Amino acid sequence: MSDPQQQTLNLPSLVFVVILVGLSIRYFFFSPSASTDTRSSNRGRGADPAHVDQILQMFPQLNRRDIQWDLQRNGGSVQATTERVLGGRGLERPPPSFQPVQPPPSSTPTRPAPPPPKSSHPDLITRYNLASRISAASQPEDAAPEEEEASKPQVTWSQSKAERQALLQKRREDMVLAARRKMEQRERERAKGKAKEV
């Protein structure tokens, strides 16, 4: 009647298979894993200030509060927030009830940025070594700059790199000296105006 080749499932085997399938489904879909643990802890306490600063360095135009809201919503994923910004979707505005956790003040006092190093050449005359040209250039004070420019011959662009560099350097020096003469002339006019008022 029954064929020994044919295998049947008995009740204990069937129960064992159902329990095994149920546990595997629970393990893969419903168990809290390490990644969801960190995500749930991030949701509870807000966004990591280091992540917020990292995104602010990449996108300084964004609002800190918006970044914190987006990081809290996506579980603290800097990559997801960056992709959202780069994708052009922008960040959603947080609701008015959202109160981000402010990072605690650091125990080490923050120093202001050191001032930029002072240049060894305080002005353009010293920087471009034009002091000799100032003393050598004894032009009358009433000479107009337009007349000075009109008297200069038109120089064409040279094929030689050295000549072009010399020409541009001379033009730069002439512009600095002309600006200095204009400034000195304005100062003399102001001094004359103040002397007339008194």
Oligomeric status: single chain
Judged by helices, strands and strand pairing, the structural class is: mainly alpha
- The amount of beta strand, in percent, is under 5%
Q: How would you spell out the order of helices and strands?
A: HHHHHHHHH
* Helical content (DSSP H or I, runs of 4+): 55-70%
Strands, count = 0
The description of the largest β-sheet is: none
Average pLDDT, all residues: 76
Structure, explained:
With 198 residues, the chain is mainly α. The chain is built from nine helices and no strands. Helix 3 (49-58) crosses helix 4 (64-73). It is elongated and about 115 Å long.
Main attributes of the structure:
198 residues, mainly alpha, 0% strand, elongated
In short:
With 198 residues, the chain is mainly α. It contains nine helices and no strands.
Ordered list of secondary-structure elements with their pairings:
Blueprint: H1 11-29, H2 34-45, H3 49-58, H4 64-73, H5 78-86, H6 124-127, H7 131-136, H8 145-151, H9 161-197
Helix pairs in contact: 3-4
